[in-house]
Amino acid sequence: MPTPTSTPGEQPKRGGTLLIAPGGYPESFDAMLLTNSLGYYEWNAKLYSNLLANYEDDKIECEMCTGWRVENSGKTWVFDLIKGAKFHDGRELTAEDVKYSLELQMGYVDGIISPRGGLIKEFIDKVDAPSKYEVRINLFRPTTLQNKLLGIGASVIYPKGTARADLQSKPQGSGPFLLTQAISGSAYIMDRNPSYFKPGQPYLDRIEMKTVADANSRNALFLTGKVRYFQGLRESNFQGFMPTLEQMATEGKLNRKSILGGCGPQGIWYNAAKPPFNDVRVRKAFNLLADRKALDKVMNGPYGYVSVLGYTPGMPYALPPEKVWDVIPGWGTGAKKQQEIEAAKKLMADAGYAGGLQVKQMVRTPILAFDYHAAHEPFQQALKQIGVTSTLDLVSGPEQQERMAKVDYLFQLYVLCQSTFDPDEMIGQQFITGGARNNTGYSNPEIDKLFLQMIQENDFAKKKELFFKAQDIIVLQDVAYAPFTQSNGVTFWWKNLGGYTVGMTSWGSAGAYRFDRVWLKSS
User: Fold this and answer.
1) Quick one: fold of 266-483?
2) Nearest to residue 289, comparing CAs of 352, 216, 222, 338?
């Protein structure tokens, strides 16, 4: 069993209560389906376990297994399970539970595919449980991405036979903490699981998670040390607090870690299967109109970075700014932007909308003062320049996710957060035909073909070439998505919080939110 992360010479201490103050409350205990708020993994990770887990950086390790081996030229992965692990209700967790959970995640049980973890269906042919403590995952083709996906917060293990309805009222987990009390819309009180399968863990006696919707109040709780970590998806979320936080980190009061890419691709998402956006000319017009420089200021302040398909400078699959600004259509500045606006007017006329167009712009509420939220109204006003009247269609988070799943909207400004930042996820999740999070109705056989080539390619240079080919088709040729700038992620935590780690992303890693290795140091 991996040992907890700690400073050399320090030994984890048992006991204490940790206060956590997220901004929202989860709609259910179904970790596979929760995608309305990324913070929901923060709640449920304490109650569940995975076959594999990601605790730190991009490392994947066994959680409910003692090890794995690869057979059949890389097409079969065999996992040996921990013996004696139990769900909170006392049932032993076995290979049949893992098999069932993976099939549920892929949509094979009830037809509902996990939005964030369902991509594994593109790799997994079938799952076998030949014995009580052995799971065999048979792949269509050799790949390693499935292990990353199995380490995220959506890839939890439920008891065999668990139905979605069962997860509305109580968790069905085997995690380090037991749910003692749930106050709907407000709080979880979780106590140490004395039967947890990891010897000696968790270290904390109790975790109290209490919803604090107001960002300023959450900031105050952290700055006063009442909350010991402050995890934002993007630097832009902090805006006015960043100078103070950075100064405290410089003075050695706080730990700090950046996560390049932040959340994921942010921009205009179209319903490419329905008029008017099934016409590429309309999609191109909207893309050309968007003034990235102006929108960057209102969305990100000083924390915006060029991103074409979710990757910011410094990441392996990113384009440098000089290859984006005034080069890629829609990224014009100054006089070039004015030329792009004129070109957008012509495209609208050519598409039959010379007399104007009225559309609904889906907007997720509440409308915040940063990121894509801050761009809704400025872009609505800008659309008038090309004869488009946009009505803001205000929806709640759950309604937005439901409509996205049904592709029941025209267009929206939004960010689709990534779980691993693997290029196979970036393409396979959103852009292949029938992808687990293809919420746009977009379909191009060439992208499907490139995706299959990408997931089989182990040579980095060749894989990068395939990714850029796909990116050019998606962004330049088909304009299936119109990218904006985006912010990197950042996390701060007090020095008196031991064992705290950050995983592949700033939000989605199962182990990093498990908190079975977290402990409280002296104040």
Assistant:
1) Dipeptide-binding Protein; domain 3 (3.10.105)
2) 338
